[in-house]
Structure formats: structure tokens, C-alpha cells
Specification:
Layout lengths: L10 H11 L9 E3 L11 E3 L5 E3 L5 E3 L4 E5 L5 E7 L5 E8 L9 E7 L5 E8 L2 E7 L3 E3 L5
The structure holds zinc ion.
């Protein structure tokens, strides 16, 4: 179970651009793994609705330097999503689309909890790279139940 490390081929120029403009250039998306909470193995991030294991803290990644992103969709709903390299507890469905994509250059599909089919977020893909953006409010941490 190797983590998927996704790093941008244009990392150097991306960082330079960040320093000079303090703004993320929309065409450069950087993804990297992030050890955030220092949590042990046997630790799971689960569906808040049904308790299905969705992913683990080891799968936390950052995209454009941040794990968590806040987005508002065209219907006006705002979502706080967290980025994960893999989410085994999700089923991904739908045709990949770039419509209103929140991450430039990535297509997205819906992903739902494989246990209760609740919509948990989106799977983002571009050539050779993919990650999950999951709605943080719909996830729970197994450590919180102890
Ligand atoms: Zn569920």
C-alpha cells in the first residue's frame, strides 16, 4: 500500500511564482503528501452518516499548498473539502467533466460513500494524476469516538 505521491513537474517555477505574486497561478496545481496529524496506524476517517471507512490520515495530501479548500458551486452551495490521495470507501461515478472544475486542468466525477451512497465529494483527475476532494463536514475521525 504505497502512497501515491503526486508532484508537479513545474514545482520550481510554481514556487517562484508564489513568492513574487502571493497568488496561485491557476494553471499550476501542486499536489503533495502531507503528514498532518501524526496519527497512528489503525486510524480511519469514516463516513459520518454510516461509519464506513473512507480513507486514512496517511492519505492526506495538499493541493496548491493546502489540504482544505473552500469552494462555492454554481448553485451557491459552499463546501469545505479536504484532499486525499486515495479514498477506498468511495464509489466514483459519472462521466469525467471539466465543467466548473475547481482545480484547473482536472476533470471531476462524483464520489459517494460505498456504504450508504451519500455524496461525499469529488474525484479529480488529469493525465496520470488523481485525488479526492471530500466534504469535511461529512467525515468523522475514529479517534473522536474513543
Ligand atoms: Zn456512509
Amino acid at each position: 500500500m504505497a502512497d501515491i505521491h503526486i508532484t508537479s513537474r513545474v514545482r520550481g517555477s510554481f514556487l517562484c511564482a508564489l513568492k513574487s505574486s502571493k497568488k496561485s497561478p491557476s494553471s499550476h496545481i501542486e499536489i503533495k503528501t502531507e503528514k498532518k496529524f501524526g496519527l497512528g496506524e489503525n486510524h480511519f476517517i469514516v463516513c459520518r452518516n454510516c461509519g464506513n471507512r473512507i480513507t486514512t490520515p496517511e492519505r492526506i495530501i495538499s493541493v496548491n499548498g493546502e489540504h482544505a479548500h473552500t469552494f462555492t458551486n454554481p448553485e451557491g452551495f459552499t463546501y469545505d473539502i479536504g484532499c486525499f490521495s486515495v479514498a477506498e470507501g468511495c464509489d466514483v461515478y459519472g462521466e469525467p467533466t471539466r465543467e466548473h472544475t475547481w482545480f484547473h486542468g482536472f476533470t471531476w466525477r462524483f464520489c459517494v460513500c460505498s456504504g450508504c451512497l451519500m455524496h461525499l465529494g469529488w474525484n479529480y483527475e488529469r493525465e496520470g494524476e488523481s485525488f479526492f476532494g471530500l466534504i469535511l463536514d461529512l467525515l468523522a475521525d475514529t479517534s473522536a469516538t474513543h
